[in-house]
Design brief:
It is a single chain. This protein has 454 residues and is an alpha/beta fold. The protein is built from 17 helices and nine strands.
């Protein structure tokens, strides 16, 4: 197993951008070391790290470090009783039946925002526009809040502001640079500014949560993450951090939806195929239901492929709970292992034309040709408990948009090579109404968005 220096890693990342994750594994092997960290994209190792209980019970030490970031700590960084308590409290809201019951509300939210896009001509940033749909949806479906209530709107504003501040494109301010070493000390003034800013914005979230908890209006909120976590005995500070943490996790879906819309804008044939299948199978019935997916093979394949091409994290950490064979060596218990998800999803040994978006690779086969080379929601006891919510959000949002408009983006999206991917610059866009025939006159908005009023 080769040892790779931070300098070598940073050189590859700087020169290769998003391609760096695969390039590192091509140069140094599917498993290599960086300091005390073992890095891998070996599918068999991924299987063991995700499924063997010994490797999932205790979180990696780096998670403990990340948990001290202001406002960031939450269920994804926890283990033991804290993790169990939060998981039990959250599961009712993540249940399929709960999520599916809200698809009409999500559909109406999308139509309301889509009408604004259409009326506004060129819109400054596609990701921000999608994010506004996302926060409106998660406030209602996830947190159990009335989206029309002023206190709900204030919480949504603070959640978005925290996330946008923490995901700045300036590498000097980012805390998730892969391979960063002592030279990161040169960025200390910017890092401190980021931490201070995150602390202030986390305090805003806490104030918004406090106001909602204190609110006695029964119309303001119903059962959801807010009431379930409060009922689990979390302190005010813990509750605010968890509420913020959950939005950060959900916000990854906005990245996926934006990436999907950019791909549809890049290749109109994909959009036409998606639209054609949705209209053929569903007709005028909206929104789609979960049980429609088996009759929507192209739509399902497109979603699977988007999740492959755009993993929401470049890697995930595990701590070995017992010795494990990896990269030709026997690793002792307590070793930190970073699974490079992006490399796993793009390695040429596992995928034909890995850098091409090819939904057809999934037609007729819902599984990859190499087992455990595709884990967008992970697996095992630590798999993503929000999978049902993420999948339905992606399906309903894409269906509502594709059936009505074509999205035009005015430059290629930029995704800087940080561990948590987000777009590095605004993506100006416009929508063109689809009326059944390319080039025909645009339909009036009242016809396009009959359910837009909320």
């Amino acid at each position: 197993m080769r040892h790779v220096s931070g300098r070598a890693i940073r050189a590859v990342v700087k020169s290769m951008g998003q391609r760096a994750w695969v390039e590192l594994t091509l140069r140094y092997g599917k498993t290599f070391r960086h300091g005390s960290l073992v890095i891998t994209c070996e599918p068999e190792a991924v299987r063991a790290l995700l499924l063997d209980k010994a490797h999932t019970e205790v979180r990696a030490p780096l998670h403990k470090i990340m948990s001290v970031i202001p406002g960031a700590n939450g269920i994804l960084f926890m283990d033991g009783e804290k993790w169990v308590t939060r998981t039990r409290a959250l599961m009712p809201t993540f249940h399929r039946d709960h999520v599916d019951a809200f698809t009409p509300s999500l559909h109406a939210i999308v139509l309301a925002h889509l009408a604004r896009w259409d009326a506004g001509g060129c819109v400054d940033d596609l990701y921000d526009a999608v994010q506004q749909i996302g926060v409106a949806s998660v406030l209602e479906v996830g947190y159990g809040l009335d989206p029309q209530h002023p206190l709900t709107a204030e919480l949504g504003r603070t959640l978005v502001e925290y996330k946008e501040f923490s995901m700045a494109a300036d590498s000097r301010r980012r805390l998730d640079e892969f391979g960063a070493g002592l030279e990161k000390l040169l960025d200390l003034p910017w890092v401190l500014t980021t931490l201070i800013g995150m602390h202030a914005r986390a305090a805003d979230v806490r104030r918004a949560v406090r106001a909602l908890v204190a609110n006695s209006d029964p119309a303001a909120h119903r059962s959801g993450w807010l009431t379930q976590l409060a009922g689990a005995g979390l302190s005010e500070a813990e509750l605010a951090r968890e509420i913020n943490h959950l939005y950060g996790a959900f916000n990854a879906v906005d990245y996926i939806v934006t990436a999907a819309l950019c791909e549809l804008a890049r290749d109109r044939r994909l959009a036409d195929a998606l639209r054609g299948e949705l209209l053929s199978v569903l007709g005028d019935r909206e929104p789609p239901a979960r049980n429609d997916l088996p009759r929507l093979p192209w739509t399902n394949a497109f979603m699977l492929e988007i999740l492959r091409r755009y993993p929401v994290s470049m890697g995930i950490l595990r701590r070995t709970g017992e010795p494990i064979e990896l990269g030709g060596e026997r690793l002792s218990s307590g070793t930190q292992v970073l699974v490079l998800l992006h490399a796993l999803h793009h390695h040429p040994d596992f995928w034909d034309e890995p850098d091409a978006l090819k939904p057809e690779r999934w037609i007729g086969s819902p599984s990859p040709k190499v087992a455990f080379s595709y884990v967008p929601f992970l697996d095992g006891s630590r798999k993503c408990i929000g999978r049902s919510m993420a999948e339905m959000h992606l399906l309903v949002v894409l269906s509502a948009i594709v059936r009505r408009v074509d999205v035009r983006v005015f430059h290629e999206p930029i995704v800087p090579p940080f561990m948590i991917p987000r777009f590095g610059a605004p993506i100006p866009f416009a929508v063109e109404a689809w009326t059944g025939e390319r080039g025909s006159e645009r339909r009036p908005s009242a016809t396009l968005y009959p359910a837009a009023e909320r």
